[in-house]
Design a protein that fits this description.
The chain is built from 8 helices and 17 strands. The chain is an alpha+beta fold.
Length: 340
């Protein structure tokens, strides 16, 4: 599997929270190379090898942050609101794609410094911003409707030193890591008790993972997401570095023994890893899957990422590979185990 190519396919898709269909179709096409799968009523892509035993669920969320059209004003500008955790500080002059009856290029309106009132350092409310698509109100209404989604126009780009940059790496890189894990297992994957969910709606509350976890009722689960990496201006308590491996989570909401097992397996196999210690909830799907239904033992692996929730998210492909390798080695320990 070519990791960059798969990641590009995934990040090229529209998949804002609650409207993940395009991304789900592509993810399903990739996952069905390894196991039967389907898109459920929540928009999740769910798959299973069908093997009995001590089952493990692998989860990564499909949805990305974006914007939603709330109105078309008298001059044809689109009024907007957030769909997920979009940050108004980085939206001015951003290039976007409006997903109406057809995809339209647009730009978020920005006030030039020459015309500002001296309060340019204060972030506007997202609801005060507008998108320019170059159309009159009548023309816009032929293609765009209230409720249509808007995404950042930022195709995946290769940088130096195995780094890549683009929008929606949160959490399409997690999806790619699970696909790479299955690829690394080869024919062995069909002998292992694996369930997979590429979940919807993580950025707006985690409903996709909550439903999928309830339905799967596995013995264990590993959620894969992104987390903060060190960068200029980031607080000193953020210690994770790009290119230094996957982040093994330790938190009250995670199963301590699973975290320690993942650490031991990484040590035994020379897989690069870092620690991520959290004092409460993790802010990921792990919080919902772990308590769904009868509950499941839960672990969390995170991929270090810079510039989260922007059009210029940056990751290191080596960290995606380390995450996949660790999951693959962990899953090998489940081969042949049968539930009592």
């Amino acid at each position: 599997m070519n990791l960059y190519d798969v990641l590009k396919k995934l990040t090229d898709c529209n998949g804002t929270s609650g409207n993940e269909t395009d991304a789900a179709v592509v993810a399903k096409r990739e996952l069905e190379k390894y196991m039967p799968c389907e898109i459920d009523c929540m928009g999740n892509v769910v798959g299973s090898t069908g093997v009995d035993g001590e089952t493990v669920l692998l989860d990564a969320h499909l949805d990305q942050i974006g914007l939603v059209v709330t109105a078309i004003d008298e001059t044809g500008f689109l009024k907007i609101s957030a769909c997920g955790g979009a940050d108004a500080l980085v939206l001015a002059a951003a290039e976007v794609t409006v997903h109406g009856k057809e995809s339209l290029p647009g730009v978020i309106v920005s006030t030039p410094p020459h015309l500002s009132k001296g309060d340019e350092k204060k972030a506007p409310k997202i609801t005060d911003l507008a998108v320019d698509i170059g159309l009159t109100k009548a023309q816009a209404e032929e293609t765009v409707a209230v409720g249509d989604r808007i995404t950042f126009r930022a195709p995946l780009k290769q940088m130096l030193n195995q780094r890549v940059c683009g929008a929606s790496l949160d959490d399409r890189c997690g999806v790619a890591s699970i696909l790479l894990c299955l690829d690394l297992l080869g024919d062995r994957v069909r002998k292992l008790p694996i369930r997979v969910v590429f979940s919807a709606n993580e950025e707006t509350g985690g409903s996709g993972a909550r439903v999928a976890g309830y339905h799967a009722q596995t013995d264990e689960a590993i959620a894969v997401d992104v987390s903060f990496a060190k960068a200029p201006g980031v607080k000193e308590t953020i210690r994770a570095k790009l290119g230094k491996g996957t982040m093994i989570g330790f938190a009250p909401t995670l199963n301590y023994q699973m975290s320690k097992d993942l650490q031991r397996i990484a040590d035994e196999n020379g897989i690069a890893y870092q620690h991520e210690v959290m004092s409460g909830r993790t802010g990921t799907n792990a919080d919902d899957i772990g308590v769904a239904g009868k509950g499941t033992k839960m672990a969390l692996l995170s991929i270090p990422l810079r510039n989260m929730h922007t059009a210029a998210e940056v990751i290191d492909l080596r960290d995606v590979q380390a995450t996949a390798q660790l999951m693959a080695e962990y899953l090998k320990t489940k081969e042949g185990i049968r539930n009592a």
